[in-house]
Design brief:
238 residues; alpha+beta; five-stranded mixed β-sheet; four-stranded antiparallel β-sheet; 33% helix; globular
Length: 238
């Protein structure tokens, strides 16, 4: 083989090795890129899982969580009931505050006592318990007059432990509703027309020293029915 042919063969082989090396480098780049995306996705999943878990604490087992909002933010609730399927009640609720560890409003208790001609009494919670008073604003955003109250429709939650109003607590809530109604702020327990709004109060008793973390507002006429837990919304307290 002449010197010219040997040189050309050497150059061709060298070019072939260079080309193969370049192809190898190009193939490695997508692999590295995919690895970064996979790592990012894994990080995102691990961050999201605990958040979803904590936000569902307070929802009844098996209940669908239709939405989660922070205290002070409005949520819209469509009350699902078989007899109002064609024209369900619709409300916009805003949880203003929850006050725990204090006596029930003295003005409310005095008004309730006066209405029945009895001396004013200061109710005491059960042994080892404290009162918590939930204050909300309700706006009727439906198409017809509707009534609503916190009895059997709301729970105050300490983690995943849910507290609802007892019969006695519900009577205290009625005292609040009557007190504000007589001052021109009609509570939805007495019925509100579309576009009207009024205050809602719920009275709960939870263990002394505990701090509630959330409020559950059902979209049914009761938190639990014969069909199981109804869907609802969670309000995360500050």
């Amino acid at each position: 083989m002449s010197w010219h042919w040997r040189s050309r063969a050497t150059i061709a082989v060298t070019c072939l090795f260079v080309a193969l090396a370049a192809c190898s480098d190009d193939a490695a780049e997508p692999g590295g890129s995919e690895g970064e995306v996979s790592s990012s996705s894994a990080t995102g999943d691990s961050t999201a899982a605990p958040l979803g878990s904590s936000e569902s604490a307070g929802a009844p087992p098996g209940a669908e969580v239709l939405g989660t909002v922070q205290q002070g933010k409005p949520l819209e609730v469509t009350v699902l009931a078989s007899n109002t399927a064609d024209d369900p009640a619709r409300w916009r609720f805003t949880v203003d505050r929850v006050v725990c560890g204090k006596p029930l409003d003295p003005a409310v208790m005095a008004h309730a006592a006066q209405s029945v001609g009895a001396p004013t009494a200061t109710p005491a919670p059960e042994t080892g318990k404290q009162f918590c008073v939930l204050s909300m604003q309700a706006v009727n955003v439906g198409k017809s007059m509707a009534s609503w109250n916190a009895d059997s429709t709301v729970s105050l939650n300490v983690g995943d432990i849910r507290y609802t109003q007892s019969q006695k607590d519900a009577s205290y809530s009625s005292d609040y509703a009557q007190y504000w109604n007589d001052r021109g702020e009609v509570a939805p327990t007495f019925g509100l027309n579309p576009g009207s709004q009024g205050p809602v109060h719920g009275v709960f008793q939870i263990p002394a020293g505990d701090k509630p973390a959330s409020v559950w507002v059902t979209s049914g006429t009761a938190i639990e029915t014969i069909d199981g837990a109804e869907p609802g919304h969670l309000v995360l307290l500050k």
